[in-house]
């Protein structure tokens, strides 16, 4: 007989060895370096305008987005558990970062980012990364779409070139009211630059998909604004340009009051960062057939966030679009991500003065396209068609994210998704009266075994499905509704893979009821884990007897 042994648990080294080390051990040559260099350059060209746009939309200055991509991205690729992950600032964080800056200022943001890095590293070392996969799909679709709506609404001022007389509110309804009142100040030149940027991005993507459409669009828009002398606001007019070097690393202010104030923001950064980065790693696995190390990836994300905060950067996470670009560009391993950071550093050192000419309307156009792509329209339509449960979860998450708060949207969506799952699981649990003789006994003509089928004092009930608290009440009602109590009650667990404490406690109460009525309870078909749970809840002899099969239980005469 062949026995299956339990899989060996991976060692600490196997769980937390960076993929960079794995790739180098496998053998890394010149051909791989060339492929990674080309992929890294391609991703850097995409990341350059996007990083600045995300930083500005987050309520900070454009260079902070570059610091994040360069410093944070370097540690994500060097220490991460994915071969192809590209780290940097992400559109999903725009809302949270902007709210943190508004509440606590830049210093508070840097501290929250550093603390989120600590949280992520701890989550990874505690091996909790595998639990992130339990976030329901409708929740991820809903909050991603909600973030897309918020990102687009946050760019309307620059898209239209509006002049505001009051500070733009964070809440979407008051924001739209303020923007509506400012519509008479629309800047036709800025609006034209926005449209030009969007059309170029879409056009290049369609007719030359391998070209860097974002960089081309921003470059053309900048050239048009400069050559034509258009009256539009640029990075130079608003921020005075960007530095041409990285700052010196500095630890954030760790005063106790400040730490306590930003802990909720840091926790939100860590939660969203874990979800976003592991989702990105899963996408890369699906495109390449590889498998990432989730806990190693979270530790790398933690280190990257701490390093980014020290250099004045924003939250770092794995970015799905840039990671997919990396894979499609032919990357062989993490060195492409490291080179992408070095290319960005070179761009900043050499071309920093040119960034002053980039119109804010052009970067708003970039983010408008990003928001459109983030909203998974086909996925939302499919979820709305799939049934009321999934539709409720995705809509609740989306609407709460847009009109209330991102964290509230995730928590409510996760809660609804969990309740929906429990409801569906409870419907898979069944209990039914079974014939006293099984088919194989009848076929074998086992008269001794089938004799009890004529005995009116023996009853057999079979359970099927995961027996947990969601089904305990239903099963208890069925058992309590048995009209005539037999002398021997057989409860078969052969088709039950799992039982929890609530279900076991219900059975313990039922067994005591049967004992008081003089009914002998026999439990059959339990595996070791189920029997352990039942024993722990008092279901032992003489309260109940255990037999391996129903047949064995039916053979008993006493």
Automatic annotation (TrEMBL):
Domain of life of the source: Bacteria
SUPFAM superfamilies on file: SpoIIaa-like
One Pfam short name: STAS
Residues annotated as transmembrane: 37-58, 65-86, 106-128, 135-156, 182-202, 214-239, 259-284, 331-351, 357-375, 382-403, 459-479
Location of the STAS domain: 448-557
GO cellular component, one term: membrane
Keyword Membrane attached: yes
Name under which the protein is recorded: Sulphate transporter
Location of the protein in the cell: Membrane
Main subcellular location: membrane
Membrane topology: Multi-pass membrane protein
InterPro entries named among the record's database cross-references: SLC26A/SulP_dom (IPR011547), SLC26A/SulP_fam (IPR001902), STAS_dom (IPR002645), STAS_dom_sf (IPR036513)
GO BP annotation list: transmembrane transport
Keywords associated with the record: Membrane, Transmembrane, Transmembrane helix
Cited Gene3D superfamilies: STAS domain
């Amino acid at each position: 007989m062949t026995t299956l042994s339990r899989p060996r648990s991976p060692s600490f080294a196997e769980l937390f060895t960076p993929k960079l080390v794995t790739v180098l051990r496998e053998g890394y040559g010149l051909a791989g370096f060339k492929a990674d260099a080309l992929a890294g350059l391609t991703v850097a060209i995409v990341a350059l305008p996007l990083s600045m746009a995300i930083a500005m939309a987050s309520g900070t200055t454009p260079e902070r987005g570059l610091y994040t991509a360069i410093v944070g991205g370097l540690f994500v690729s060097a220490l991460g558990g994915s071969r192809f992950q590209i780290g940097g600032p992400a559109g999903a964080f725009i809302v949270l970062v902007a709210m943190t800056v508004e509440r606590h200022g830049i210093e508070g943001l840097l501290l929250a980012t550093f603390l989120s890095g600590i949280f992520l590293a701890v989550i990874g070392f505690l091996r909790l990364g595998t639990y992130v996969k339990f976030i329901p799909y409708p929740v991820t679709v809903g909050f991603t779409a909600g973030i897309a709506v918020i990102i687009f609404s946050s760019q309307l001022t620059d898209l239209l070139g509006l002049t505001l007389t009051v500070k733009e509110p964070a809440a979407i309804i008051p924001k739209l009211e303020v923007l509506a009142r400012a519509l008479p100040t629309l800047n036709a030149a800025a609006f034209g630059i926005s449209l030009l940027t969007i059309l170029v991005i879409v056009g290049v993507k369609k007719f030359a998909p391998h070209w860097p459409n974002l960089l081309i669009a921003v470059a053309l828009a900048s050239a048009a604004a400069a050559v034509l002398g258009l009256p539009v606001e640029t990075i130079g007019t608003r921020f005075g340009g960007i530095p041409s070097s990285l700052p010196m690393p500095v630890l954030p202010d760790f005063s106790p009051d400040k730490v306590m104030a930003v802990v909720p923001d840091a926790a939100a950064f860590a939660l969203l960062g874990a979800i976003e980065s592991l989702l990105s790693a899963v996408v890369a696995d699906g495109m390449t057939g590889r498998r990432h190390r989730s806990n190693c990836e979270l530790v790398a994300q933690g280190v990257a966030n701490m390093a980014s905060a020290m250099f004045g950067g924003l939250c770092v996470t794995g970015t799905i679009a840039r990671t997919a670009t990396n894979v499609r560009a032919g990357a062989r391993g993490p060195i492409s991500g490291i080179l992408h950071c070095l290319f960005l550093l070179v761009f900043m050192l050499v071309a920093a003065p040119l960034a002053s000419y980039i119109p804010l309307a052009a970067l708003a156009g970039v983010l408008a396209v990003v928001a459109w792509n983030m909203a998974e329209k086909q996925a939302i339509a499919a979820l709305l068609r799939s049934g009321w449960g999934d539709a409720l979860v995705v809509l609740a998450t989306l609407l709460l994210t847009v009109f209330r708060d991102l964290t509230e949207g995730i928590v409510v969506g996760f809660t609804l998704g969990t309740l929906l799952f429990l409801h569906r699981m409870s419907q898979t649990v069944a209990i039914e009266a079974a014939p006293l003789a099984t088919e194989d006994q009848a076929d074998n003509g086992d008269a001794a075994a089938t004799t009890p089928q004529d005995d009116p004092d023996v009853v057999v009930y079979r359970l099927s499905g995961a027996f947990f608290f969601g089904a305990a009440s239903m099963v208890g009602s069925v058992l309590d509704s048995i009209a005539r109590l037999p002398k021997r009650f057989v409860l078969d667990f052969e088709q039950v893979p799992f039982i929890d404490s609530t279900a076991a406690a219900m059975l313990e109460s039922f067994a005591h009821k049967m004992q008081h009525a003089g009914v002998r309870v026999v439990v059959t078909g339990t595996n070791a884990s189920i029997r352990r749970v039942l024993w722990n809840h008092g279901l032992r002899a003489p309260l109940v007897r255990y037999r391996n099969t129903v047949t064995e239980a039916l053979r008993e005469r006493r």
